[in-house]
């Protein structure tokens, strides 16, 4: 009797195992969408002349890297140097001649007024002139700071490590304030601009781990970080602008490198995956059988290989991911 019970349990277990082995949970089907962009520098700055003058030197050319001096080139400073010298002479005159003189005169006339030997108006006039001289000295000091700043702006500066992408001036060339001189760019980090549809955008921001892209021309894969997620969209393309930052692993940081991004999206056709053996064909119609023993007509879209197995891509309004089908 006990042997019979054990045999019955073993039979039930084997049947349930077989049933489990003969059913399958329908899987969603995905399609890989390749997107391509070209690298560009993280930042680009236009260099503009802030003063007019003749270029005395241009220290870099296209392709050069800005060095420790952080200098693109310098204008001739002869006239601003002369203005600085004239300002120094004016300050010296105001401080050592006029201001000292009026200070001594005010002190002397104050004593005379106290002894009632001169009029109060004479003292007031000297005091007014001393105050005016002090104000003139302050104006000269402010003018000196302006001249110093103007001289500094005669040299066009750029950030250290940036590269020159455009040069529009040569030594000896005259420029006016506001004229464009060139461009410098920061290639320490590359940006790959993509235009994504909203479903593609949702898939991208859902990534939790490192995002991998392929540098097609270099033949290598590198990590990328999504930045500059534009909340607006381009009305012409009706896409969302997203920049991917490529920092590490890029051997040749420059613009124009092809970047391939592959996003795995749900199959647009609504297809799902079932084992090939679960699809039966009769009279040019394909069927799958659910666990309720009801056959469902499906549209057969072909086979794919995934995870080392063959799967059939099928579409049916009666079949969705998560349903269970029987594999004969």
Classified by CATH, the class of the largest domain is Mainly Beta
- The helix fraction, in percent, is 25-40%
Number of strands: 20
Supply Rg: 41 Å
Overall structural domain count: 4
Order of helices and strands: HEEEEEEHHEEEEHEEEEEEEEEE
State the separation between the terminal residues, measured CA to CA.
35 Å
Organism: hydrothermal vent metagenome
GO cellular component, one term: efflux pump complex
GO molecular function: efflux transmembrane transporter activity
InterPro entries: RND_pump_MFP (IPR006143)
Condensed summary:
The protein is α+β, with helices and mostly antiparallel strands and 328 residues long. The protein has helices at residues 2-21, 78-114, 120-152, 198-206; strands spanning 23-25, 27-28, 30-38, 40-48, 53-58, 71-75, 155-157, 163-167, 174-175, 180-196, 211-215, 220-227, 240-246, 258-266, 272-275, 280-282, 285-289, 295-306, 309-315, 324-326.
């Amino acid at each position: 009797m006990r042997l019979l019970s054990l045999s019955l349990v073993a039979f039930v277990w084997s049947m349930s195992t077989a049933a489990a082995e003969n059913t399958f949970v329908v899987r969603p089907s995905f399609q890989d969408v390749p997107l391509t962009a070209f690298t560009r520098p993280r930042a680009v700055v236009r260099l503009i002349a802030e003063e007019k003058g003749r270029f005395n030197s241009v220290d870099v050319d296209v392709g050069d890297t800005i060095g420790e001096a952080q200098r693109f080139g310098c204008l001739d400073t002869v006239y601003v140097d002369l203005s600085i010298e004239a300002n120094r002479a004016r300050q010296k005159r105001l401080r050592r001649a006029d201001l000292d003189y009026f200070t001594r005169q005010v002190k002397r006339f104050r004593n005379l007024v106290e002894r009632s030997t001169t009029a109060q108006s004479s003292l007031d006039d000297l005091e007014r002139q001393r105050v005016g001289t002090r104000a003139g000295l302050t104006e000269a000091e402010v003018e000196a700071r302006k001249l110093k700043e103007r001289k500094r702006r005669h040299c066009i500066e750029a950030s250290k490590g940036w590269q020159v992408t455009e040069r529009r001036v040569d030594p000896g060339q005259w420029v006016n304030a506001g004229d464009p001189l060139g461009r410098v760019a920061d290639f320490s980090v590359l940006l790959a601009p993509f235009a994504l549809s909203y479903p593609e955008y949702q898939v991208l921001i859902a990534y939790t781990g490192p995002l991998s892209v392929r540098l097609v021309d270099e033949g290598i894969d590198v990590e990328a970080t999504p930045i500059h997620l534009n909340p607006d969209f381009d009305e012409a393309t009706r896409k969302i602008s997203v920049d991917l930052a490529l920092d590490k692993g890029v051997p040749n940081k420059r613009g124009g490198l092809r970047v391939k991004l592959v996003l795995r999206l749900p199959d647009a056709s609504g297809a799902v995956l079932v084992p090939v053996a679960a699809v039966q064909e009769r009279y040019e119609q394909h069927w799958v059988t659910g666990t309720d023993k009801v056959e469902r007509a499906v549209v057969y879209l072909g086979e794919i290989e995934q995870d080392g197995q063959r799967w059939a891509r099928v579409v049916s309004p009666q079949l969705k991911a998560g349903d269970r089908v029987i594999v004969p």
